[in-house]
TrEMBL record:
Keyword tags: Membrane, Transmembrane, Transmembrane helix
Name this polypeptide is given: Phosphatidic acid phosphatase type 2/haloperoxidase domain-containing protein
Limits of the Phosphatidic acid phosphatase type 2/haloperoxidase domain: 98-219
Membrane-spanning segments: 65-86, 98-118, 144-166, 173-194, 200-218
Domain of life: Bacteria
Lineage, top ranks: Bacteria, Candidatus Gottesmaniibacteriota
Amino acid sequence: MRKRLIVVFISGLLFVCFFLFSRSVRSGRWNGADFAVTVKIQERIDKASQLRTSAFLGDLMEGSVILVSPAVSTVAVLLLTAVASFDLKNRRLRWRGVLIPLAFAILVLAEVYGKTVVHHPAPPFFMIKNPTTHFPSFYVNEEFSYPSGHAARAAFLALVAAGLLLRRTRVRLRTIILLVILTSMVLFIGISKIYLGHHWASDIFGGVMVGSAIGLLVL
């Protein structure tokens, strides 16, 4: 019970941070930092010592964001719900599994609300990588980009998956490895969205905060 209260407290704290951070983003306080971070990340990758490395990273980043697209995320949520709902060992159902799709629905509403209230335009067209392929999908359809839905879904899915793994995996080393992989995935997707010019850094931070806040409630 005590652990549960701590988790709920951290979740509530993240919600407060998200609210306050959203207000500062709306005021334009982070515009300069957003632009500088995007330029630095794009320059570092584009000017890599080996052009093959740069091209490979670019392709890998484009592919990684598909993992947390709305369609793929929905499938992942259904799979996680099935795993959380069915206890094969004891042959019984766990009602808490239904919290996962409910929380995911709340996450979608939070994303829509943020993009409606926080008027934070996406990066300009000249910053978008591969505009021929991605301009119609990622730029025109998202008039405002805060918070990043991809980052929010990545954080949410990572936390839910981590919670299920911690309950079922007793091997310490294996648990650590899996947690590192999930954390790295969230970071890589966040950096990818910035590099590709789909989101600002503040969009990513906001998405991770709200995704983590909602994800913690499911644990």
